[in-house]
Amino acid sequence: MIGIVFNMILISLAILALVSAICFYIEEPDSAHIRTFTLLFGTAIFLICGGYSIMGFMPYVEYAWLPRVIGFFGIDVFLFLEFTFLTVELKTKIGVRIIICGFLALYLFFDLIIFGRPDTINYVRYDYHTSYENIGGKAYIFHYTYVLVIAFCMQTFGIQWYRSKKAMRDKRFSAQIMASNYVILLAAFPDIFKGLFVTQYPTFPYCVSFSFVYFFYWIAVKRHLLFTPTVKNVCKEVFNSINVPLLIFDLDGIVNVFNPNAANKFGIKDGETPYIRNIFSITDVELMRLIARSKGGWCGQVQTKIKETGEECTLDCVIRFDNVGDPFCIICTVLTFGQEVADNEGEAI
Fold first, then answer.
1. What is the pLDDT of residues 234-270, one digit of tens each?
2. Confidence (pTM)
3. Mind giving me the DSSP string for 173-190?
4. In 3-state terms, what secondary structure has residue 150?
5. Residue 43 exposure: Cα atoms within 13 Å on the Cβ side
6. Which of the listed residues 41, 54, 59, 65 has the most CB atoms within 10 Å of its CB?
């Protein structure tokens, strides 16, 4: 029964990896080549965990090699992508990159053909799980030669990647990524030293270790992007630093985005999406007129009061349109009486 549990875990990891990779690709359009590599890494984990889990569920031993090849292909591709990622981060000359990556891709192709054949390992069916036993031989040696070669290359290029970084934040990021790969080495011990670590589930440590490396990479990249100066981050910091309340609400009058000054001024808590009428003493008719005029491209001011304090204020509204020219949201700057006087004095000066 434990085999079923292991296979269900692998299926969950496969789906989670693919979904997280797609979400990252959609949510991080400004992350350059990292978003593409994240999507490829997630797809490789999907192949690894998905292929070996299907192999484990398959009751027909004679066909178990088919899903096993899928998982095996995912492992080779994942290692190849990691090395390619390092060459891109190091900004290796395109000619040198093509030669090195081309050689490893050719090795990957032959490794898939040689070690992926049905007769290279023995498939065994237990009560609820299909597994395999390595029988050694030249194909087995050829595969681990590929693993050792690419591991040596990654270690060499990883040290160069670490040394090429100037900021401690970047050095920490590169060190974390490279250190996570040692989990794969630890997971390979049961397979390499099969006389000492005989088990019915040799693929499970592999899949979990590769998944760990991917998710560790995913988290490290997200953290690194969060603290890396980009247009997106700078704009967010500027928005949060403005000392005037800013509200962004949709065409239904629901506030979706607000800066910290607005949160303090109107008592809005994180996660709340208040209705604009809950903040200001504005009637339904006035709100409908405001939204209707904004849909036509109107930008102007509305005199009203803050509902909680009764303080008079001016809503300076600007409409924003999406890529197809449809009204998308209304950006509202809240000017109180004191701020209006200061602005007028500034204009007079």
1. 777 788 888 899 999 887 888 888 999 999 988 888 7
2. 0.65
3. HHHHHHHHTHHHHHHHHH
4. helix
5. 11
6. 41
